[in-house]
Amino acid sequence: MMTVHKLSAGDGYKYYTHEVASGDALRANDRELGDYYTVDGMPPGQWIGTAPEALGLSGEVSEAHMHTLFGQRFTPIETMEVKEMLHGLPEFDDYMAAYNNAYEAYKAHAAERAWEILTRAEDGLSQQEIAHQMGEIGHPMNQKTVSNYLTRYAAVGNKITSAQAEHNGKNGVQSEGKVFTKEEFIERYRLTPGEITAANNAGKRAHNKLYKEQTASQLHPEYGAGTDFTKRVSEEVARHRRMHDGAEPTKRQMQEIRFRVGGELYRAERGIEPTHAQLRQFIAENSKKHQTAIAGFDLVFTPSKSVSIAWGLGDKELRKSIEAAHEHAIQDVVRHLESNVVMTRRGHNGIRQIDTKSGIIGTKFRHYDSRAGDPNLHDHVVIANRVEGADDKWSSIDGRTLYQYGVECSELYNSRVQQYVTEKTGLQFEPRMQNGKPIHEIVGISDETIRAFSSRRGDISAELDKVKEKFVADNGYEPSEKQLIKLAQQATLATRPAKSEARSLEDLHTEWVAAAHALSEHGVHVPVDHQLAESLKTASLNYEQSVLQGARQEAYSTPLEAHTDAVLSRLEEARSTWRRTHINAETTRYVRELGLNETQDKGLISSIRQSVTEDSLPLHIKDTRLTPREYLRKDGTSQYQRIDSELFTSERVLAAENKILDAASRAVIPASTVDVFELAAQKRRAELAAQGHTLPAGQEAMARAFATSDKFLVVGIGAAGAGKTSSTRLAVDAIEASGNRVIGMAPTAAAAAVMRSEMRINADTVDKILTDWQSGKASMDVRPGDVLLVDEAGMIATPKMEKILTLAQERGALVRALGDYRQLSAVGSGGALRLVDREIGAVHLDELFRFKNPEEAAATLSLREPPLVGTDKPFEWYRDNNRIIAGDADAMIEDVFRKYSADVTAGKQSIMIASTNETVTRLNDLAQAHAIEHGQVSTGAGAVALNNSSRAHLGDTIVTRKNARRLIVNSGQDFVKNGDLWRVTDLHDDGRITAQHTGHGGKVTLPASYVEQSVELGYAATIHRAQGSTVDTAHALVDASTDRTGAYVALTRGRENNALYVALADGEKRDDVLDRITGAYERDLTVHETVDQLRAEHRNIASLIAQHEDISELAVQKVMEPYLMEGMSRVKEHPVRDKDSGQIIDHTPANGVEDAKAVLASPAWPALAHDMGEAYRNGVDPAALVERAYSYRPLEASDQGAEAKDYAAVMQWRVEKLNVDAKKVHEMTERPLSYLSDEHLARLVDQAAKRTQPMADRLELSDPWWFTNPYAMVKTDELMAMRSRTFKALQANENDGSLYDRIKENLGDMDAEVQRRRWEISGDQRELEQIIRGERPRSGHNFTLHKVLSEEQKVRQHLIPTIDLPETKRPEQIQNGISGHTLDRFWENHPHLHNTRLGTILRSRSREIGQLAQVRGAQLAAEKPEWVKQLGDVPANKKLARHWYRVAAETEALRDKYNIAPSDPEAVPQKLRTQAKPHEAPSRSEARGKFLHAQVVSTHKRSIMAAHKRTPKPDIENVQLAQARDTSLRAQEAHREGRPAGITTAMLSPEQRKHLQKMRAEKASQTTTRKEKIMQQTAQPSVEQRIADQRKQRSNRAQELARLKERAQKGLEASKQKQTKKPEQPHQQNKLHHHHQRNIMDQQRQQQSQRGIRF
Asked: What angle do CA 862, 863, 867 make, to 5 degrees?
């Protein structure tokens, strides 16, 4: 199989260089990485993928390579820079030599220090004297430090006693008659554990130093502002300084601050008091910024266990062949990833998904054994999160598709490794069922052998005795209860395999062969070496002749339709909808079971895959929107559509959903009459009254609906603890009182048993009843009038629910389904409960009775589903009430068990729940160890191995994990069920277990085969198994992989208390994990929901606006390109400036045309074009702007004379500086004349000129063009502050070459301006400049008003070259049904884009957005989310209604863009309309928020005013209008997609069905071209249209039935009025009632027959 894992930037890569690369074992400090790969020439790491070859990478993957690729991050760069980065690294040997030299140097230093301490200790000096003398020779320490060193030396064997040795002068120690010299002592010295860590750190520092010296400059480490912990510590240190007159805290005070702050944060984040060790670890983890960037993806390739066993035990030839097959399979998957999966993204927020160019940069590490030392061949392929896009830019991989295609790639690897093993060795594979799924193992390797080589631990009882004995010996007393739990935790960890020292493959092979011989002695025959190869070949040959050949012949003789139907059936069982990757994966899995492979049977496999695709119903929407050619992928699809966007379903799934909906709306004769139900309800009320209770209204309403509803299917939905069982008991009583029966059905045998005991009805599993019905058995006869009561219906897949309805319809029964779709759903295509509730309606139970605390009951409802109004904080109550504890996994497991154990000891019924099987196993181990220690479990009678390598002893609690109906218990009243808990009462030598049921007390002896495969320890339960149980207290352990449904189930099991324990991985925080759980829900959607979701995504206005903005950026580049060419071509020469003074000393020719072409080809051209476009929109001439930026100095030289790598980036840098000066001209608050408009300024200049005496000004400026210098318009104090910040930035970026050059150039410009102001201008000029910059008032005597005004005019004309903009509409104006604030149309209306394809695309998309705004607005009026209330009611006036729709749609688009929750009641939240800098002009996003807020307020006022004149539109009219507009838009979209606009029937007619069946029957004998099939498909209505028509027909049918009921009611009322005049006989009234019922039934049957649907 293949699994995918993320690799975070930082130290994560060291797992591969220190552990994976050495076989999952920690690398010894004195071992090099290459030492672990001496067998068969396996290098430390291999390059994989096509990108390394293109980059010229070969040979070993060094630790430096791994550090470069995965330890840091870099911005998107060019291919040449990637080559320089990866080739400019230290050689592997140099890298390891630096580490080893530093390590040995520290070791020598530590040994010398030990020599000095030990020799003085042997001289009899006191520890205080030793400390004093050590300080004199350069090793300062105190007495306590000396004592610690002596203890540590003794612990590792460096201790020398006076009895064995005596000091012999300065250079030797006599030991056992031998004198060690100082050099001999240092050579033999053993490092203490602390010194080993310090030596290792010294080696790491040497690594980093060498790396920094030789690495490329493009790397940017992830520096951050720090963590909450470091910020709080800084605040406390600052407070200490204030309170102690600026004194710094001492070392001890600093430690106290850190521990105090760490303790406060730990308690706040995790809800518990930390131990000293936990607090130290927490402080260490939070003292540095957590790495969050994804550096790569780890793909782990592992063949089936039998392959590893054959490889590990076989001879060298077999081993090499299997390794080659494994290698080829990995290469096939990598090629598939590069060709079809790996993509990257472009645009704002990665809106476009583009092709990659040169494949992936992958590194591959192989190791041979598991943690337990068993044969386990597997490879880690670590892919760098850096790929070269089709546009030659490097950026991150789109991880969404990588995960989406994970299953397909895993199945591809499984198939290929099996195929290549067979081709290279002749060995065959056979499928074996494991947990309900086929696992393909090599023929001849038995399951017993596989289990023997999959062991993972020893006997826990023996280990527990060891740790307890050690505790008593160390402490001198017996452990307390709390200490016993810790010891049990140590014992369970000790029995798990630890990371062992890496060994060569030869050593491992020898060990495995010895283990095989030991197994043979115990009756499990396992041949080895060449005998194994021969044995497996013989078994494979026999299997091929007896099984495979026949299977292959049968596969070819089976019609293609049968293969297609088989694959489709598997897809339907697993999900309601599927993607092409699911089709490929399921087809691959299916053909492998048939014994087919891609080499020999490629044609048949391709036909099956293609046929499955063609027979699947497409749900995805064809994207027909116009897209620029630049934004199309190589296959012609739009980059705005993901490659995995195709979605399919099948006719059967769609028909099943439609049948469920029709059943929920179909009228039938009720199971009970109202009168009978009232009698049952009165009886129930009396019973409850006698107990001091009342019958809840919600329970009575649900029971009434179940008993008296005239619907064929009624769905009841209730939260956990709502009393669903009590409600159904009342319904059962009423139905049985009417002479009918209730038959219970449940997804599990345990749930069915609960129905039998609590509801006193016959009940069984859904699978059992359906299987008996389909096979013709009569184990539970269903008769007319019966009611099939389905419990936990949310866990039943849609196809099974459809079969239940078919069974009921065939037998004349009714169906009542009960459950909660917010709890765990079906394993497969589910969502039936939610579908009925959403489309038809269901009965709800809202009041909770399970929980003793009403506040906790309310909290569970908040967790169950997000609120309609307000923020979604489902865990707030649990946090406030200390119900949530967080910490590392080991600590949480210990806490869960400790709290659980305390509850059990107190006599409460409690349960431990975990989200993963691995955690459940660990909790079981801990509970078992604790039970052994307390004598509740006896180990004297031995143990029996269970399913997951656990061992059961006498007294253990076990759980059975599979229904076994033949194992009868409790005098035939029960059988062994999945989920049953038992107490072990006897163990048998042959592996059998005798156990007693913990509920009814019945005993049973479980066969050894059943124990081996289906029995586990039962102290803890998974969330799935815990659903349906009710206890006093529950302790649930979750992690970041848990979804909201799982957390809801876990926190609703306990009546009195439910506690949540959050296991945190490295770097995770409690609230972050809880937020992830909060957002993870509703993953399994029905076809109906999926269709609606796809259409909503396709029409999402916020997404379409983002696409319009992205295309507009391309338009900016097209418009700005001629301005760039024009501006740069104007420059004929560049000035040459003195490096020190910045003065012009010469000129050099310029080649503007060629440089402009280089700028256009540079990666930063889009960013430069954007800045030019923004300046253009502000009225600045972009050509003049470019001219000024280009003329400053040549592009091809920096201050160091190095060639620039990105000309566009250099130009952008200069344009940005010019924009800074231009911005200063407009800053009204800083310059006295900036408030004047250009026209007003010109008039003042003319007036001043007339009033000024006609004589020359009294001074001549020495630098009349002073304002053209960079930063000339910046005030002096501000300039000095900018210079200081720039200088710090220069120091911080010394290692980044290109960025360093730009900052240095910027700093040089600032220095030149400072020098000019100080030394190069006269006092009069300085005064004039200060007046213009606003640094002083115009009070000088040297300047007339005319001079100042003229200078201001001159500055503006030069710094802001203006241009006449094309006429555009204001943002407030509405164009094509949407405002300019929401949709910026500036560029689509630009004259340069008239009559161009790009302009046509933009205008087409803006028109569609305007149309969608009206449709979406009408839908919002019908849906009425909470925030829409701020707009008021929809006015009846059409013009005002259109305005209402537009404002609503634009507001939702704004909310979607910034991810505002639908429950937020404020239409435009405060943060979206608040201006960050009030003294400046608002940004476009801020202006949009303020505009829409004003529109919302205005719309609300209009709505109120219009309501006085004319009644607003009623809700029904809003719904009808929304449907009408949606239908009209669907017709337009269907026309664009080339589909029929609509049909009159919802499903295919019988004639069409017959035609389809005939086509499929002829498919085997006739070849239908793909073109003909496409024509046949397009001639049929889409799934979306069929669903829409179904909904319309159901709505019409419901309205018709409502009219019939209303008419009948009026008739009854009229008859009652007549009865008051002339009494009627009772039987006449009943006759009239039954006549009314028959009329309704006849009407419905007539409608159904017209639709061609048979019930």
From this structure: 40
**Residue 1481 buriedness (CB in 10 A; 0-12 / 13-18 / 19+):** exposed
* Distance separating alpha carbons of residues 711 and 732, to the nearest angstrom: 17
* The pairing of beta strand 437-442 with beta strand 429-434: antiparallel
- Residue 1618: pLDDT band (50, 70, 90) is low
247, 376, 1468 from 250: Cα distances, Å: 9, 53, 51
Least confidently predicted of 99-103, 1264-1268, 1485-1489: 1264-1268
Range from 1065-1069, 1276-1280, 1378-1382 that averages highest in pLDDT: 1378-1382
Query: Pick from 824, 827, 801: which is nearest to 661 by CA?
Result: 801
Residue 1508, sorted as left (phi over 0), alpha (psi -120 to 50) or beta, turns out to be alpha
Residues comprising the chain, all counted: 1655
Q: Which two tokens stand for residue 325?
A: 């097959």
**Would you call 1501 exposed, middle or buried from its count of C-beta atoms within 10 A (0-12, 13-18, 19+)?**
exposed
Range with the poorest average pLDDT among 165-169, 210-214, 820-824, 1103-1107: 165-169
Specify the residue for token string 């496999």.
Answer: 605
d(CA 1373, CA 809) in angstroms, rounded, equals 60
Q: Which of 1184, 1182, 1181, 1192 minimizes the C-alpha distance to 1214?
A: 1192
Instruction: Give pLDDT tens digits for 1077-1136.
Output: 888 776 678 888 888 888 888 889 999 999 999 999 999 999 999 999 999 999 998 888
Question: What is the Cα–Cα distance from 173 to 180, expressed in whole angstroms?
Answer: 5
Neighbours of 812 (CB within 10 A): 13
Q: Residue 608 in contact with residue 587, Cβ under 8 Å? A: yes
| Of residues 824 and 521, more confidently modeled | 521
What's the pTM?
A: 0.77
Q: Is the CB of residue 225 less than 8 Å from the CB of residue 128?
A: no
Report the alpha-carbon distance of residue 485 to residue 508 in Å, rounded. Answer: 36
pLDDT category of residue 960 using cuts at 50, 70 and 90: very high
Tell me what the pLDDT averaged over the chain comes to. Answer: 79
List of residues 6+ apart from 834 with CB closer than 8 A: 821, 1086, 1089
587: enclosing H helix or E strand: helix 580-593
Cβ neighbours of residue 23 closer than 8 Å, sequence gap 6 or more: 36, 367, 368, 369, 502, 503
Question: Which run of H or of E encompasses 1331?
Answer: helix 1323-1333
Question: Where is pLDDT greater, at 37 or 127?
Answer: 127
Look at the alpha carbons of 1214, 1215, 1218, 1224 in this order and tell me if their dihedral is positive or negative. Answer: negative
What are the structure tokens assigned to 1051, written together? Answer: 């926190």
Alpha-helical segments (H) within 594-667: 602-615, 651-665
Q: What is the pLDDT of residue 1565?
A: 47
d(CA 1245, CA 1224): 21
At residue 1157, the pLDDT reads 92
Type of residue found at 1067: G
52 vs 83: CA distance, rounded Å: 9
Q: Angle at the Cα of 765 (from 760 to 770), degrees rounded to 5?
A: 120
Half-sphere exposure of 1027 (CA within 13 A, CB side): 25
- CB atoms under 10 Å from CB of 253, counted, come to 15
Rounded Cα–Cα distance for residues 1512 and 110 (Å): 88
Percent of the residues in the chain that have a pLDDT greater than 70, as a whole number: 77
**Are the C-beta atoms of 1173 and 1187 separated by less than 8 Å?**
no
Residue 1104 structure tokens: 């379409």
SS3 1418: helix
Examine the pLDDT at 564 and tell me if it is beyond 80: yes
Q: Which helix (H) or strand (E) holds 1316?
A: helix 1297-1319
Q: pLDDT value at position 89? A: 59
The set of residues, in sequence order, having a beta carbon less than 8 Å from that of 18 and lying 6+ positions away, is 26, 27
